[in-house]
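We were asked to recover a plausible sequence for a given structure. The inputs and outputs are reproduced exactly as logged, with field labels preserved.

PROBLEM: sequence recovery
POSITIONS: 294
GIVEN STRUCTURE:
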């Protein structure tokens, strides 16, 4: 689509514990209707990696999709056949001048990282040239595969569906922006970043399953507890990954209310962007928009 960077990049961007309450008999999910006067749009929280068992999606997603003629995603997903972009991305995600992640870690943290990667069935040498943000994202992907929890995310699902249904696609960011964001994450703070993420990855499966449950229920309180609160000890990452982007998206969303009234948008962003005091929904409420869950 998430910090515990790996967690947020999954959601969030990269983003998804078990709620002890049932998913409730109420028709609630991570889809909201945002209104101003007689005009409205829909905003849905996505998970960028979703196991096949989570399909079909909650009915509210399909309801909002059917009522919308424009699908707005965070960024255009690079084509799998775009080798130039892939090459550029790999170059940006890697250290230059023959440096490796180990050059920035203490002996103990490097050992812990190597042991962790070995437990996933791979060798540190395969990843050692990657910068920390991309490295931890890749490890989270491997964890998801190991747990049998990987699969096509909500973003890809609706991107493909919109193309098939000839619905217009629009974007809040460019792919290069997201690439730069991940490439710069943790750089200059590798020791603390890697150490913190390794600690958080210990309970990856239970965290991911719990976040999926909170996402399906649209449980904003639980999403904030799981996705936002753990990031409070890393203000730079939460600012870069979430709050700055939330603020940047608001003008784009407000523009949707000044265009053709016959257009109806469904905005799909990582669900972590819709939880907490500085979420997209909170910012819109502060501006006087009416926000209600479908």
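RECOVERED SEQUENCE:
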């Amino acid at each position: 689509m998430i910090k515990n960077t790996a967690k947020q990049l999954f959601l969030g961007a990269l983003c998804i514990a078990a709620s002890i309450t049932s998913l409730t008999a109420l028709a609630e999910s991570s889809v909201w209707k945002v209104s101003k006067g007689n005009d409205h749009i829909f905003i849905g929280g996505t998970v960028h990696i979703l196991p096949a068992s989570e399909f079909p999606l909650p009915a509210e997603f399909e309801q909002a999709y059917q009522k919308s003629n424009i699908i707005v995603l965070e960024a255009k997903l690079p084509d799998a056949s775009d080798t130039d972009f892939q090459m550029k991305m790999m170059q940006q995600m890697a250290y230059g001048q023959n440096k490796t992640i180990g050059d920035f870690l203490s002996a103990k943290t490097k050992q812990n990282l190597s042991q962790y990667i070995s437990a996933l069935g791979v060798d540190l040498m395969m990843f050692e040239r990657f910068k920390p943000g991309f490295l931890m994202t890749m490890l989270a992907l491997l964890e998801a595969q190991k747990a049998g929890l990987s699969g096509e995310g909500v973003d890809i699902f609706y991107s493909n569906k919109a193309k098939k249904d000839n619905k217009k696609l629009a974007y809040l960011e460019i792919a290069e922006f997201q690439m730069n964001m991940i490439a710069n994450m943790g750089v200059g703070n590798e020791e603390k970043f890697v150490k913190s993420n390794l600690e958080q990855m210990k309970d990856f499966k239970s965290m991911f399953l719990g976040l999926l449950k909170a996402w399906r229920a649209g449980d904003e309180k639980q999403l904030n507890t799981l996705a936002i609160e753990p990031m409070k000890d890393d203000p730079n990452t939460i600012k870069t990954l979430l709050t700055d982007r939330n603020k940047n998206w608001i003008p784009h969303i407000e523009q949707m209310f000044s265009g053709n009234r016959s257009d109806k948008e469904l905005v799909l962003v990582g669900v972590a962007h819709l939880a907490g005091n500085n979420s997209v929904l909170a910012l819109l409420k502060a501006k006087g928009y009416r926000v209600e869950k479908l």
